[in-house]
Structures are given as C-alpha cells and as structure tokens.
Design goal:
By secondary structure, the chain is of the alpha/beta class. It has ten helices and eight strands. Helix 3 links the parallel strand 2 and strand 3. An eight-stranded parallel beta barrel has the order 1-2-3-4-5-6-7-8, surrounded by nine helices. The structure holds 1,3-dihydroxyacetonephosphate.
C-alpha cells in the first residue's frame, strides 16, 4: 500500500524510530527491499535518484516501483531522491510517486527557497510529500566527487531552519551534519549538536543522507535527536557485489557453470538480508508497525 511521504514519516515520529529509504535502481534491489519490509513489518521508503537515470531511467523503474508498492502488504512511500530539475519531478508525480525531494542545496539560499516552494506547489495536487535540503553534503549522490575540494560540505545552519521550513512548505528536512554519500574514507564524525539545535527550532522529521556505512551507535544517537528517514544505498549494493564475487569464486573452484539468474539471485538475497538488518536497527526497539 502506498503512503504519502509526510504520513509515513509521521508514523516514524510517533514510534520514535527512523525509516529506511533505499535507492532501488534494479529489480533485485526493489524486490529485496519490499520483501524485507513485509518480513519485518516496518514501513519503508523506496527511492529513485535523478543521478540513477543512466543506470535505469525513471520511465522504466518508476512504473515498476509504483506497481509493486501498490500490491505490497507493507506500508511504502515511492519517493524521488535528489531531484534538481522540476520537469523531472513532474515526470515522477505523473507516475504516481508519493514523495519527492527537491535538492536545491547547491543553490544560493534565496534560490533554494524559491524553487523548493515551487516544488511544494507542484506536489500538493498529487498528494505527494516534499523533502528539501538545507546546507550541503558536498559530494553528490554516489560519492564520486568526494575527493573534489570544490565539493566541500556545508553543515546545515540551524538559524536558517525556521525561515526555510515556513517559506517552502516542505514536509521533511534533509540536514547536513557530518555524513557523506558513498564510501567513507575514515570514521564518520556526526554533529548531533546540529540536530539538537534544529529540533529546538522546528519539530519536523529530519533526514540523514549518506546513511550506509554509519555505526549502529551513531544511528541510535541520530534517531534520538530526531532523524526519521535514513537514506541507504552504497554499502548495501557493495555487499551484494561481494556475494556475487564469492559465488563466482566458488563456481570457478568447483568448475561448475554459473548462469545470470544465479548472480541476480545471490545479489537479491544479500540485499534482502541487509535490508532486514538495517530496518530493524533503524526501528530502534520499536515494535513492528503493520
Ligand atoms: P549512501 O549511498 O552513502 O548510503 O547514501 C544514500 C543517499 O543518501 C541517497 O540519497
């Protein structure tokens, strides 16, 4: 069953937990995540990022996401992640997405406000919830420019948050407080103090991007400080690739033939197991919701 982004995050708020928001740019990832949600009984967010267009276009993956979410017994939000072009957001809205992120984090503050407010107007008639970002994580989704000195992270300024929320009409807020997209080169150092200062000013669900690769203890501290949606991708697909490589090694050693469906099956199973673990950690002790 499909839920609006604001409504599903409200459930997380009520249960003082965070929801896992998985990027699912393959049928294996999509099935793994929805099966994990049904198994655990926790609501889930499945998302397609604009930068995944080269892996699989929204016009191909979007209808599959909506169709499988509709017939799932889990509570699911079908979300557009890191959208920088409003025409692309329109495409997702027409497909039936129930959540969308407008990412104006690289824009000057006034432009970010203007376009985020426009995105909120676009989403409203579609009953689609809106996520926006204030501050910037520097490296873009996928982490491939993490070494680029021009892509410096800029932590969210808590002083701007009340104005940003009121001026845009967003439902949930993505914050920059020390996580990065992609692989971590060292231990992530989260500033929970930034989250505390934000929650003192606005009581809305907060979002952690770059959520894979963070320790369970840091997840718990962030959830206790108001994080209600955790975006998770890189480490899950890394584990899936490792499972496929190990399958290939075993087949080579045994001299057996491998087929493509053996590999997609191994990737699916590893991602499903990881999704179950992640959703359980993010639930932070809350009982299953459905
Ligand atoms: P990771 O790939 O670092 O887990 O981040 C995912 C993300 O933030 C998607 O928006």
């Amino acid at each position: 069953m499909i839920l609006n982004l604001g409504d599903i995050c409200h459930i997380a708020e009520q249960h003082e937990m965070a929801l896992a928001a998985f990027n699912v740019p393959s049928l294996e990832a999509l099935r793994a995540v929805l099966d994990a949600a049904e198994e655990t009984g926790y609501p889930v967010i499945i998302q397609h990022a604009e930068c995944h267009e080269e892996m699989v276009p929204l016009r191909v993956m979007g209808p599959a996401m909506v169709a499988l979410a509709e017939c799932s017994s889990a509570q699911v939000c079908v979300h557009l992640d890191h959208c920088e072009h409003l025409s692309y957001m329109r495409e997702a809205l027409e497909l039936g997405f129930s959540g969308a992120m407008f990412d104006g984090s690289m824009l000057p503050y006034e432009k970010n406000v203007e376009l985020s407010a426009y995105a909120a107007e676009m989403c409203a008639p579609y009953n689609c919830g809106l996520e926006c970002e204030l501050g910037s994580m520097g490296a873009r989704e996928g982490g491939d420019d993490a070494q680029n000195p021009a892509a410096q992270a800029m932590y969210t300024n808590p002083e701007l948050v009340s104005d940003f929320v009121a001026a845009t009409g967003l439902d949930i807020l993505a914050c920059s407080f020390g996580t990065v997209h992609g692989l971590y080169r060292g231990e992530p150092k989260l500033s929970i103090e930034i989250l505390n200062q934000i929650r003192e000013r606005v009581h809305i669900p907060l979002v952690m991007h770059g959520g894979s690769g963070v320790s369970d203890d840091d997840y718990r501290r962030a959830i206790e400080a108001g994080i209600r949606k955790i975006n998770y991708y890189t480490y899950g697909v890394k584990y899936a690739a490792e499972a496929v490589l190990s399958l290939v090694d075993s087949a080579r050693t045994a001299g057996t033939t491998l087929y493509w469906h053996d590999m997609t099956g191994a990737a699916y199973e590893r991602m499903r197991q990881d999704a179950v673990r992640v959703m359980t950690v993010f639930a932070n002790g809350a009982a299953p919701v459905c």
